[in-house]
Fold these 2 entries.
Entry 1:
Amino acid sequence: MIMMDKVVKRYNELIALDHFSFEAAEGEIIGLLGPNGCGKTTAINCMLSLLAFDSGDIEIFGEKVHPNNNSVKRRIGLVPQELSIFDKLNVYENIDFYCGLYVSDKTKRRRLVEEAIEFVGMDRYRKFIPKKLSGGLKRRLNIACGMAHQPDLLFMDEPTVAVDAQSRNFILEGIRQMKARGKTIVYTTHYLEEAENLCDRMVIMDAGRNIAHGTVEQLQNQISTQERVEVGVITDESDIESQLEALPNAVSVNRKNDNYMIHFEKQENNISNLIKFIESKDLTYTELSSEKATLSDIFLELTGKELRD
Amino acid sequence: MNIFRMTIYLIIINFKDFGYWFWTLCYPLLLCALFMMTTSNMSNTELEDINAGIENDHPLSEALASIEFINLETMTEDAAVEQMEAGEMAAYVHGDYELLVTESGFNQTVMEDVLTQMQSTVESGIPPQHFDMDASFIDASSQDTQPETVLFYSLIAMIAFYGMFSSIEFISTMQPNLSHMGARFAASPYSKGKLLAASVIGAMALNLFSNTFILIVIIIFYQINLFTELWPTIFLLITANFTGVGFGLILGLVPKINAAAKTIIAIVLIIGLAALSGLMGPPLKQVIDGNLPWINTFNPVARLTDTMYRINFLGNFNDYWSTVIFLAALALAFYTITLVVLRRKQYDSI
C-alpha cells in the first residue's frame, strides 16, 4: 500500500530524510517512532506530496505520489500534529468543511459527518465552536475532520499529544475500530506504550534514517537486553556488582542505593538463577521485579538516546 | 463540496473575524466622520451643471458647448450680468478668452480653468475643435476648490480595493507552509480552481457588502451626493473590487510571511496609494501629478479616484473605459499568476 524507497529530503545543509525507506501493508497500523526532529513529519509530508523531495520514490496504492494525483489523494486522510480546525466554524461545520474537500454529494456527506461525530463522541458538542471545547475534545474534532470521509489510508501525526486520559483512551479505541474496518494507519507518537499497544509494526527513525523496523518482538531481538531484573539486596560485600554481572546471560548491572538493575541478553531462567545466587550468598532481598525489554530499551539501545531527547 | 458551499464557509470564517469588521467597516467610517468634521461645507455642495453665457459668434462657442457639464447660452453682456446678479448664471465668456463674473465660487473657478486651458491649447497651435477634454477639468485648482470631494472619492477608491484583506486571509489559510489548515487542504483532491473561484466570490461579496454599507452612510446619513452617474460608478467600483481581491491573492501566495503580516503590508500599501491619490488632501496629489505623473498613471487608487471625480463631478467619460480596462487587466494578471502558482505547488519547508 505504501512504498517509500530511499527518499532523501534536504533543507540546505540539513538532511531531514536520509535514504529513508519503509513499507506498509493494507490494514495494518504502522508506527513511526523517533525523537523530535528525526524526520517523522517530513516523511508524512513527502508521502502526502506536500513536500518536494530530492531523490527516491514514493508509491501509494501502487501509484507515484504527485501534487495533482487526485485518485490517490481521494483515498487518504490526514490528522496533523497541530490542531487544524477553524475557530469560527462550529464542530459540525468544521467536519463538513473538511469532508467536503473529498465528498461532493451532499446527502452522502451529511451521513459521513454524522458518523464522524458519533465516532468521536461529540454529538452533544456539534454546535460548539472550538474555543468552547476542552483540549481533548479539540483533538477529537481534529481527528474527526481527518477521517470523516472514511479514507483507506490515514496519517495520524501525534494525535494524542496533550490529551487527557479519557480522551486518549477514546481516541485509541477509535483507531482500533478503524483498523477493524480494514483501514491502514500510519501513526507517529512519542508515547511508546501507545505504540506498543496499538501498532502492528514500528519503524524507528533517527536523523532521518530508518534504523530498525518490525514488530515489538522483532525489534527486541535486535538488541542485547532482553530482560531487566531489579533486585534490592542488603549486603556489605563491595564486589556484589561484579558477582551479579557474572550471572548467566547478564550483560550489565547498574546500582542505585541498595537496588541493582541487571540487564540480561536472553530470557532464560534469569530470576531463578538470581535467587539461587542470593541464597548461596545467604543474603536477603527486599524486592524483586522483572521486566521484558520495552520499546524504550530498544529505542535507547538503537539510538543512544531517550525518545523525548 | 461545490463552489457555493465553499464560498459560504469562507464568508462565515471571515465575517466572524474582528479584522474584517475593523478594516473594511469601522476604519473607513472613522475616516468619513473625520472628513465630515474637517470639511463641514461638503453637504452644501450640489453637483449641478454650470450655466454660462457667451457672446454671439465667439470662436469658442462650439468647443464650450461640447462640454457636458456646461450649459451654454448665447446672449449679450447686459443680459448675462442681469442673470448673474439673479444667481442664475455663473460666468460670461467674451472677447479674447475673457471671463466676466459677478461673484467668486467653485463654478466660476471651473469656468476659469476651462478657459485658461483652451487658451493655452490654442496658443500651442491646436484648433479649438481638437481641445483635449481628458483630465483637463480636474486640474489642481479645481480640486483645491473642493478638497473634500477628492477626499471622499479617494476614500471610496481605497475601500473598493479592500477585498484584498479577505483574499489574503483565504489564500494564506489554504497554504500548507503558512497554516495548519492548509496542509489538510493541500493533501486533499479539492480543485485549486474551485478554491480560487470561491475565494474571489467570497472576498468580493464581503467587500461589496461593506462598500455598500459605507456608501449608504455617506449618501443617506451624511447627505452627500457624490454620484450623479450611479450605474457607471457601480460598474467601476465592482471592477476595482475584482482587482483588489486579485492583488490580495498574489500577496497571500507570498511564502514565509503569515496572513497578519501580509494584512499589515496591504494596509500600508493601500493607504500609501490612497494618499498619493488625494486621501490626505489634494496638495500631495498635485505635487505627484506635477512632478512624477507616471506614478498615479499606474496607481490604481488614483486612477479610480480621478475617474469617479470626472464622471460624477464633471460629466467627463473620456478616461472611463481606459480605467476599467486598466483595472481589469491588472485583475486578469493577478488571477492568472495565482492559478499557475497554486497548481502543482509543493513546498520547500512546512
Entry 2:
Amino acid sequence: MALGVSAATRLLGVTLVLYLVGALAGLLPAQAASNDGGRLATRRRAAARVSHALSLLAAVTGLAAAAAVLLSPGRELTLGLSLRLPYSLSRLRLDGLSAFFLLIISVGSLSASLYAPSYLRSYEGRKPTGWLASACNLFVLAMVVVVTAGDAVLFLVAWEVMSVASYLLVMTEHEDPAVRGAGFLYVIMTHAGTAFITAGFLILMRAAGASDWASFGLAAAAMRPGLRDLAFVFLLVGFGTKAGLIPLHIWLPRAHPAAPSHVSALMSGVMVKTAVYGLLRLVFVVLGGGPGWWGLLLMGLGLSSAVLGVLYALMESDLKRLLAFSTIENVGIILTGLGAALFARSLGLGPLASALTAAALLHALNHALFKSLLFQAVGAVHHATHTRNLEELGGLIHRMPQTALLFLGGAAAISALPPTNGFLSEVLTLKGLIHLGASAPLPAAKLAALLAATGLAFAGALAAAAFVKAFGISFLGLPRSDRAASAAEAPFGMRLAMWLLLALCLVIGLVPGPVLDLARSVGDAVTGGVVGAAGVPRAPFVGNVASLTPVLAVALVLTAAVAWWLARVWSGGRPVRVAEPWACGVDLQPEMQYSGVALVKPLRLFFRTLLRPERSVTREDAGSPYFPTVVRYEASLNPVYERYLYVPLRRGLLAASWQLRRIQTGSVQAYLAYIVAALALLLVLAR
Amino acid sequence: MGTLNGPLIQAAQGALQALLILALAPGLNGIIKKFKARLQNRVGPPVLQPYYDLRKYFAKEPVVSRHSSWILPMVPYLALAAYTVASAQVPLLGSGAGGDLLAFIYLLALARVGLTLGALDTGSNFGGMGASRELAVSVLVEPVLFLSLAGLAASAGTTRLGALAAGGVTTGDPGRLLGAAAFAFVAIAEMGRIPVDNPDTHLELTMIHEGMLLEYSGRHLALLTWAAEVKQFAVLAVLANVFLGLGSFGHGALTLGLSIAAVGVLGLAFGLIEFLFAKVRFFRLPRLLGASFLLAALSVVTVLFLGR
C-alpha cells in the first residue's frame, strides 16, 4: 500500500474520531424528551442509522490503517494527542501485532454496521435503538484503543470501557431476569479478571518504574524468575477470564447470547480476541516467553477448553448458546497453538514457535469471520421466527434459502472442512503440533505435543457433529412449530453483511497466500523477530499448506463435475421424481423426526462421566397408565466445574462475608478507627 | 525434477490412483462378499455383482422426498468427490506418491458431514437414526485415526503419507504393528463392517451407514454405493501401504501390484472377522474404540521411545 506513515497515522486518528462521533450521534435523541412518541421514534431511528454509518466509515479507515502497517513489515505508527495527561495516556502505537488485531476488529465492526440497521428494526418502539448504536460504537472504540495502547494504564482504562460498554449491550433485554443474572455474572467475572490483569501490571510496573510496554519489556528481562512466573500466572488468569478459558468461562455462554445478535457476533468473534492480543503482547512480547511449563500450562488449559467447550456446545439446544460454547472451543484451539508456540520457544525452536503463533493468529482471524457469520445467521433466524430453540425450528432452508446457505458456509468453515479457511488454520495448528512432536528433544514432550494434536482432532470431530446438529435440525426436515413454518427470508442489509463474511471465509480458504504471509510476519515479530531474517529459515510446512486448500478445492470441484456429467450420461438423464417419504405407512409428522436432543443422545451417553446428564420423565394420564395424555421430558447437564469449583467458592465467600459482619458494627466511630489503623499500617509498611 | 514438473507429476499420479481405485473398489467388495458367502456354505453372488448393481442403480429413476431441499441430491456428488480425492492421497503407487494425511482425514470428515446432513434432509426418522449413530461413531474413531497416523508422522518429521510409507516393510517393528492394530479398528468403523456396523442389513435396530442411504435411489444411490466402496479401498490401502510398509518400494508396477494384492488380502481378513464375530451392541462401542485408542497411544509411545 502506497500510504505514507503520516497518512496512515492520520487514518488511525480519523478511525477513533469517527467511532467517538458515532457514539455521540446515537445519544442525540435523548435530548428530545418530548411526549411526541412518533417523532421520537423517527429521530431515534435516524440517530441509529447515522451512528452505524459512522462506524461503517470508521471500520473502513481502520482497515486501511491496519493494512498500511501490515503490508510493510517492521513499520510502526505512533499517534499522540497534544494533551498533558499522566503516564502515556494520550499515546497510541500501531505495530504489526496491533495492526493484525485492528484488522480483526475492523472486519467485525464492518459487518456489524451493515447488519445492525435492518436487525434493530425489530427493537424499534421497544428499545432506544440510538443508544444501542451508541454503546456499540463505544464498545468498538474501546477495543481499538485496547489493541493500540502503548501503555498499561491506557490499556486498563480502555479494557474497562470495553467491559462496561459490552455490559450495557448485554443488558438490552433487562426485563428478563435471566438476562439480568447473566449481566451480573458478567460484571463480576470481568472485574475479577481485570483485577488479576492489574495485579500482573503492578508487578511489572514496580520493576520498571514506568508503564509503557517498552519499559515493561526491559524490566521483565531483569526480573527475578519467581516474580516473572507470578506475573505470568496473574496475566493468564486475567486474560483467560475474558477469553472464556475453562473453568473461567461461566459468564460467556450466558452473556454472549443475551446481547442483540450483531453484538453477540462482536463479543464472541472479536472481543475474546482482545484477550488473545493481551496474552501475545504481554507474555510473548513484554515477558519474552518463559520456561517450558508456561507453554505446557497454556496448552493444557487451551486443550481442556477446546474439548469441554465443544462437548457442551454439542449438547446445547439454544442456538446462540451453542455458538457461545463453540467460541470457548475455538479460543481453546487458539490458546493451544499459542501454548505450543511458547513451549517451542522455550526449547529454542524459533521457526516452529513462529509458525505456531501464525497458526493461532490465523485462527483468531478466521474465527472472527465465521463466528460473526454464524451469530448473524442465527440472528436472522431469530428475527424471522422469534425463537432460538432448535427443537422449535426445522425446514428453514425452504423459507430462508440464502440464510441457510450462509449458515451452512459458516458451519463448514467452523467444522474445518476442506477447502474453507477454518480447515486452513486447523491444519496449520495440527501440523505445527506434529512437527513439535518430531523435533522436541524429550520423548515426554513429543508425546504431549501429539496428544494435544489428537485432542484438537477429537474436538474437531465433535465440532463437526455440533454443527451438523445446528444446521440439520434447524434448517432441514419439517418445521417443528408454526413459527418455523411461517418464517421469511432476512432483509437485504443483514444478508449483505453475511455474504461479505462468507466471501472473506472463502477467499482466505481458496487464496491463502496473502493472509498467511501477514500472519507469518506478525508471528516472526512476536516470537523474537529472528525468524524470517537472514540466516534463520521459516518452518517449511507453512508454505506447503498455502497450496493445499486451492489444490483440494480444484480437485473436489472437478471430480464432482465429472461425476455429475457421467451420472447424467449413464442414467440417460432420467428426471428426478418427487414423492412422499416412507414413514412405515403413516403420514410423516414433524414430531416423528429426530430432535436435536435425540440426535446427540449416543454421545451424551458415551461421555456421561464428563457431562453428568440428568433427565426426568413425568407422565399424566386419564385413568390408565398405558395411555398417557401428557409426557414431559426434561434433560439437563451438571457441569463439573460448577460442582467442584464455583459452588465451594460461593459457599466460602458467603461464609467469609458472614464472619466479616462481626466488624461491621455500623457505628461511625468504629469505622473512623479502622481508617486510622489502616493508614498507620500503610505508613509503617510503605516507608 | 523441475519446480513446475513436481506438482504436475504429483497431480497426474493422484489422478491415476483415484481412477484405479474407482475402477477396482466395487471388485474388492465383490470378492469380500463371495468369500463371506463361501464361508457360510452359500454360493453367493458373482464377484462382479457390485458392478452389475451400479449399472442397475444408474438406470433406475431417482426419487427424492417431498420435504427435501437441494442438499439431498447434492450429497452423492460431494461424497464421491471427497472420497475420490481422499483416495488420491493414499501412496498406492509407492512412497513417492500420495498426499497429506491431514487432507485425507478431513476429506473423510467432509463426506461424513455431507452424508449426515443428507440423512436429516428428508425429514424421515430413519435418516436421523443413521446420522445420530454415524456422528457418535465418528467422534470415537477420530482420535484413533489421528493419533495412529500422527505418531508415524512425528517420527518421520513430515505429514506426507508417502513418506510415512517409506519406513520399510514391517518386520517386527513393534510401533508400526501396534499402529496397524489400532488402525484396523478405524478401518472396520470406516468400512461400516461388523462388529461396528453391518453392511448387509437395513434393520433399523442395527444399521448406521445404510440408515443414511435409505432415502436415496437411482443414480444417487449408485454414486453413494460407489463412494462407500472407494472409501473402503482407500482405508485398506492406508493400512497396507502406510502401516504394513508395502508402499515403500518407490515407484513401479511391483509396488502397485503388491499394494492391490495386499488390499485384497486385507479385505478377505476383514471378511473373516465379519464371519467369526457378531455385531457389538452400539453402546458398547466406546469400549472397543477406547481399546483401539490405547493401542494407538502405545504405538506412539513405542515409536517415540524406541525409534523406528
